[in-house]
Amino acid sequence: SFDLVVIMRVLSIASALSILSVTSASLRGSELVGDNSTKCCVGACDGDLNKYYSIDTKHNECGECCMLDSDYKKYHLFEPGLTKANGTVTPCSDLGYSIYDDTVTHGAMSITMTLDLYFPDEEVTKE
C-alpha cells in the first residue's frame, strides 16, 4: 500500500512538472529575452550547493541550477538529462547556450527547483 501511494505521488508530481514545463515554454518567446537582474544561479553556487545543468531538447534550452548532491537522485527521476557541471560554473554557456531567457521554478509540493534558462547562441537574433 505504501509503495502504491509513493508511486502515485511520483506520477502526480511528474505530471505537474510536465504541465509546468509546457506552460512555462509557451509563455516565453524568443522576442522576450529576460534581463540579467533576475538570474538565480550565476557563477559558483553557495555553501554545499553544486552546479547542475540539463539540455531540454524539446524546447531547445539549457537550464542551470544549484542543488545539493544528495538531492540528485530525487530530481534525476523527473529530469533524466540532469548532469553535474564538474569543473565549470557556466555549463550552459560552455555548451553554446549563453543567451539568458528566464528564471523559473519547476515542480510541485516540496519538490521544486529554481533554474536559469538559456537559449542557444544562434537561436535569438537581434533585429
- Shape field: globular
| Average pLDDT level | 77
Straight-line distance between termini: 58 Å
Beta-strand segment tally: 5
Subunit organisation of the chains = single chain
Return residue spans where pLDDT drops below 50 for at least 5 consecutive residues: 1-8, 10-36
Order of helices and strands: HEEHEHEE
Range of helix content: 25-40%
In spatial order, strands of the major sheet run 3-1-2-5-4
Report on the structure:
It is built from three helices and five strands; from the N terminus they run H-E-E-H-E-H-E-E. It has 127 residues and is of the alpha+beta class.
Secondary structure: elements and pairs:
Elements: H1 2-27, E1 50-56, E2 61-67, H2 72-76, E3 83-84, H3 91-94, E4 99-108, E5 111-119
Antiparallel strand pairs: 1-2, 1-3, 2-5, 4-5
Which features does this protein show?
single chain; 127 residues; alpha+beta; five-stranded antiparallel β-sheet; 3 helices; disordered N terminus
Short description:
With 127 residues, this protein is an alpha+beta fold. The protein is built from 3 helices and 5 strands. Strands 3-1-2-5-4 form a 5-stranded antiparallel β-sheet.
